[in-house]
Protein 1
Amino acid sequence: MTRSPRSTGLTGLARAGFDDLGRADADLAELADLTGVDRDELIASAEAAADPDSAVSALLRIARRDASIVTDSLRRRPAAVWSVLGASLGLADFYLRHPEELADLASEGDGLPTRDELIVQMLDAVGAEDGFAASSGDDAWVALRVRYRRMLARIARFDLAASDPTIILHAVAAALADAAGAALEASLAVARSRLVAGVAGAGRFERDAVAATRLAIIGMGKSGARELNYVSDVDVIFVGGSADEDTVSESQAVEIATRLAIQTMRGISEVEIEPPLWEVDPNLRPEGKQGALVRTLDSHIAYYDRWAKSWEFQALLKARPLAGDVQLGEQYVDAVQPMVWASAARENFVESVQKMRERVTDHIPPAEVARQLKLGPGGIRDVEFTVQLLQLVHGATDDRIRERSTLDALDALVSEGYIGREDASRFALDYRRLRVMEHRLQLRELRRTHLMPEDGAALRTLARSSRIGDGGDRVVAVWEEIKREVREIHVRLFYRPLLSAVAALPADEQTLSPEAARARLAAIGFRDPAGALRHIGALTSGLSRKAVIQRHLMPVMIRWFADGVDPDYGLLAFRRISERLGNTPWFLRMLRDSSGAAESLTRLLSGSRYVGELMEWIPESIAWLDSPDQLRPRPGFVLQEEARAIQTRHASIDDAMSAVRALRRRELLRLAMAAVVGELSIEELAEGLTTITEVTIQATLRAVRREVVPPEDDRLDFSVIAMGRFGGSELGFGSDADIIYVFDANGVPAQRAQELALQLVQGVRRYSEDHRLPLELDAGLRPEGRNGPLVRSLESYAEYYRRWSLSWEAQALLRARGVAGSVTLIDRFLALADDLRYPVAPDPQGLREIRRIKARVESERLPQGQDRSRHLKLGPGGLSDVEWLVQLIQLEHAHRVPGLRTTSTIAALEAAVEAELIPRDAAEKLAAAWRLASRLRSANTLLSGQTSDVLPTDRGRLDGIARLLEYPARSATVVEEDWMRAARQARRVFEKLFYG
């Protein structure tokens, strides 16, 4: 059966790449009628278009306005016309506005316009002569923009015609930067004319004064490196001055130069009949947006000498004269370049480098990260960051790698032996392919974008225009492969050569001198790079299976350590643990096969000395990282059973208690590891710490009782009562365990019972001691405080509380909770305590005394010279404020509000809200401050391994604490401000409700 001519024609359209066959058929028919070009000839030419549908639609719209220009262009250079209009809707719209410009696209010439040609063309567009444009009106800006887009189309024509656009990427990017410079040159010429003409908003100045004013436009970033995109912000810095102080003074020249700069930017970026070209961004200037738009050369140098931050020097890495006074621009670059390369020696260089890395993903909406061609993982910025960092580290002593462009810098780094040739070659190819894709995406609509499309048709167009893959699926697959490779090569380029300075690597791998390796380690945050190299050498040297695995993993582990708070300690601790474990099979297997566990290990060791020091003694704990369930707190009954089994296995109290101490250390390490990797809430952590403390005290009491109390005296009842935060199940790392002891003779002679009880107390205190991980049993809340007897009988407590107890002792009993010993005695003691802590009629005098004591505590117990606002316990809005307020409410109302009869601060606070004793908003502020203070105290201990109630002022320690609380890196100021704000709010509530 023969097919109809129309059917055959549609098949031909599909082969040519058309998608909407019906519409394309109609558009082609109309275009053929308007231009007289044969339909089959049009279809054949359309194969040059990445998107034939949009190309024929654009040609048809232009032909309806001017058929003759389309006809002529299609007859002269059909492939160029179809390829440009099929790749760029933005240029198609340009030709629709200006059909006559299509003739230039179809003109002779295949090469890229040179820098000189671009300047001549742009100045010709505005009729510039002696630096002044022929017109000062808006028409000059329109002419400038039209000519720029003409030249942009010439660049695109060359780019799209290449069989492999990655090969010419470097030249195309340079031409785009030269075109931007030429556009700024022409806009500056218009600006001069506008100032002389006195155009509204420009000011009016004499022509001689304007002519004598020097203005250099310094290109930064990609424009400075001559690696610009089709549509990109052009970062600039303006340098002004006077060429003739007899004609114009320096100060007046700066004023004129400032107005010239403003008008120059308006010519490029302000909305006009012809759309803006791109954004001119001057915010990399000294002091950023707050700084003067134009400074003299001397003013720039003075700023960089005295006040500039490291990142400002790094931003100058690619600076070059872009437009305006070239001589002044070169003087500026010559003055600042030495400062750029000296920046690696500055004190805050490491922090600055880390900020460079953060800017890779700053401000990206989470939904866009996976589609980010530039800023996402394995994207363009990752390549540029790696190259720039290597330059900054090694360029301080080697001027041969001081190149502006990324690709030139890569070549120089290879030539001078800093990176391997094969990896650099792959890195450069990946970079070129990413940049080509970026170019095609921006060329499509002539707008700034770095997002990979999700639409199938858009992906097909990208694949065809970039010549990367033969379809949408293929271009995505290539992109995913590039991203993986970029991340892998980053590690190989920067970190793996570090091993060559201390370990034997294969002959074909890149080697670094020890000096170069130390420079790299210092750049990424190691304070003792020589020591770090020694540790790396010890870990990776030799022929053992362990050394082979360590050599494979060490490059990426160095990166992970460097991302931590204290990379030096982290690496040292890892070396010690590795030496303890030796060739243990499971350890080597975990390092090799579980990158998640290995990364968590580096995070733990570089972020917490508390964890690192314990892990050195319990290295088998590393295995927990491979199983999230192993990092969950173990239930109390499981720990109790293990503690009882320990005591069954060991005959002597010393052996039994040594095993119990090991149990406690192990569980504290488990909790610490879980806290650092973010597995626990503050409530779960407090409960876990309280549980293991209870189990330890219970096991200790059982062991001591077995040694101290003979069978004939076994009737003696003895109990341990938890007080304070221990009683409230609110312990943090480093918290003391507040307790009191009680006994009941229960038929044992009184004197004998007293002696045995005291021996039990002494035994519990002695055998619970742990010099490696202290457990401080603090009995300071007993009757009469530290002046009273360590242990009393229940009758003695009853008598004391009946006759002599003070208000603070009733307050202290609010947290009383039995944790070890006779359950019957605990119940009797708590019944006694209930009468005091939940009184039917609170004593007003006692309540006043509590308020007075609180005021005295604030003034007397804070360390001399200590900043009160930083004390997490006793400072304004700290733990003490919240707890004393809650306890005052309990003393007043717990008798009639059962919910207040709890040892938990947060539970009592919630009960007070439900009983309408405190507004919910106030309670939320109190709870927020209490939780944050608790978290900060624990984090402080985890970070340093030492207990402290004071928020440190050292920015490094503060940042470490912030990281443990899952703030982003370099959040020292943020966490400090969060605490100060929470404390202020809590203090206001406290003062209103506590003192009235």
Protein 2
Amino acid sequence: MLVFLPFVAALAIATASDRSRGSHAVIAGGASVIGLAIVTAQAFQPSQQVVVSWAPALGLNLTIMADPLGLFFAGLILGIGLLVVIYAHGYLGKEEPTGRFLAFLMLFQGAMVGIVLSGNVLMTLVFWELTSLASFLLIGFWRDRADARQGARMALAVTGGGGLALIAGLVLLGQAAGSYDLSTILARGDMVRASPFYGPMLALILIGCFTKSAQFPFHFWLPHAMAAPTPVSAYLHSATMVKAGVFLIARLWPVLAGTDAFFYAVATTGLVTMVFGAAVALFRTDLKAILAYSTISQLGLMVMLLGFSTAVAVVAAVFHILNHATFKAALFMNAGTIDHETGTRDITRLGGLARLMPVSAVLGTLAAAAMAGLPPLNGFISKEMMLEQALHTGWAGQDWLVPLLAAVGATLSVAYSLRYAVLIYFGRARGETPKLAHEPGAAMTVPPVVLVALVVAIGLLPMPLAGPLVMAVASAVIAGPAPETHLALWHGINPALGASLIAVVGGAVLLWRLAPLAAAHARAALPDAKRLFDVSVAGAVAAARRITTALHVPSLQRALFVTFAVIVVLGVEAIVTAPVGPGTRPPLPATPVALVAWALLVVATGAVVASHRRRFVALILVSVVGLVIALGFVHFSAPDLALTQIAVEVVTILLLLLALNMMPKRPPRLSTTPHRVRDGLVAGVGGVLAGSAAWAFLRRSPPDPISAFHWANSYSGGGGTNVVNVTLVDFRAFDTLGEIIVLGVAGLVIYALLETAARGAAGRRLRAWREDTPHSPERHPVMFVMATRILLPLALLVGSYIFLRGHNQPGGGFIAALLFAIAILLQFLASGYDWTDARRRFGEHQMIGWGVLIAVATGAGAFVFGRPFLTSAFGYVHVPLVGEVELATAILFDLGVASVVVGAVLLTLAQLSHVAQRAARAVDEAGEDAA
């Protein structure tokens, strides 16, 4: 329930998009509160794992692993998520689409909760990619801004590319461990480290983690993600996406850590990132950019500690993850408040705001001091723990290198933190701001107050408030008892304290001498990561275009010829190298009816080729081919296939008639005679090969046909006597689910392609199009109109009957949906699109979306009863005067199938009609101009 709760909230918000802003916030906040309550209750219980079997043969199970590490991150995600929802309610303007924003935010929250609670690495991958998609939507929320669109694309490209590497790495991990179950993998660390896959596996997994957590050199996407609204930035930086990589390193620490390769790859990357991010943050002028690079630096600190591969360093990393979440969320909210109330984030235009915004000044200063590592705040303790571990770590035999660079990073962090607080809130005002600064409302004040209170409380009472939590989480990371570590402000005079004092003094000096340093930095010709990324993308696109142009000549005929020629060559090679002997099944006798049907099929097929330039004639001949195939299904006792074939033929012919009406009735000749001879030879050889292959298969009996299982278990296992329908909605329901998703996507693609028909070159051709065939003087013939309106309820009744009986008799959701679509198509043809559309009560997009959701929800409902995904259930009830009636959950799945099919057909119809209407308007306008 905890994993799916945010997704339910996202769906509820999206469904209630027309409700008030307050109702959206209540749904999102309520889901976070309920989730927090579940996490809190589970925290006092022993670690447990819930396994729901999905595809056990593939090692794919829905496994929830509720251990201290997962619950710790889930608590951060849900707790800070609740504060972000409250903050966003005050931050976003009343004209902003809060429903869309909070739906995306809940989707993001659900994906993150899924990552941290997944007990199967394949399940982790699903949620991992979902975070990239959700972050893309959130970063690009203000889609009218170019920087938001570019930032979203950049984040998706970098993290999505890293996700591809992670997929390969985790698959190798599962192969090396012999299981994709996380608990099993964590118990086989020695086996994994001894595997020959360890090196490439480690590299691929770390690429995925480093791209997600913005580690050098994959850091550049994060600053450009600041184009998102500040609530997104606060959430993304403190508890969610950028922490996902850190989490995965911590999760897999018992398996991957303990080798030189892990130390040098992880600790070095973290150390370089910490220093680099801090150095860049010192010279940025945008408040969110300063905080973005400070996040990069702080993430590097966490990664470095995990890379040290010692238990004490893990304790320090876990404690800093907690501390960073509190002060970084508070700082982003503080920066958002300044931007919201002053109208600028430029630090060079800000100053002296403590007089106008005293509460915000206190909150921002305390949070910045925690980030700088000043006592008595929580950041001071974890910074000292980091310096202590750095002092005991050598690199390539150099014991001084890691402590020196860690101290440099700490010094720079003090400098950029002091710069943030001092330049914004103290000293003189540096210019007028676009808006008169003042304190925000309660919605934007309470969340940072809560976070800063935690910063101070944990700093003053670290052991009582955070000690047990940190020890439990560190034990889960280590997969053993954590070392006894006393969290306290004072550990006596020691080298770590000296390094900390040097960092504070050095940071103050850097701030004092910042002006000449900033001038030198501005003069330096430093490489810009964004520019390098843009150049790389442009180069990759140009190279891909050159390769594509070289390999795929822009000629459809030539491309098809090459494709079929290769297929023919491969077929000939297969027959030559492995000849097929005579089969064992005797052929069936050919009846006179079958011979006539075969001859009609051959003649119709040849006529299609001969009359291909007469499009309407060719279309009628194609329908004859389809009709003969349907009769063949009837002959071989396949009524479901026959019904489906006939319905598909009718729908296809009707839609193609609409499309062909706006195309030239006799297209120009595109091939020369030699080319037609060449193509005919390839087609003839290919036809002979395909027929020979079909003949070879038909002459043989499969050794163990799967159909035997379907015949034997259709009624006992699926509750239906129609084996075809039971196979589609039960035995092979996962295939059907994928097919309806593809059908829905195809409908949306048709919508997108035809939506552009009025623009560009296509629009110019459309405006120049004129009718080239005579039309009936009666636009909507009365007899046709009345006949279709009388037939509509009858067709819907027949479709409903076929739908309801599909589990036991020929029929089902797909055939019924096609009948519904035919009935509506006939209304359009008879009465026109406008008349039909005015009486429509459901949108095509909604029908596709709800159909997929109904099908998925039906399959997921099996989890409630501990059964695999898409397992159906059935039973029988006695209805008075009717008798025994079967009830099966498969009918709900079939309802989803029907909804998607009807939606896709009507969406195609609507777009074709819109194109026709645009063309008609163009003709009318041309006539008026001529008049």
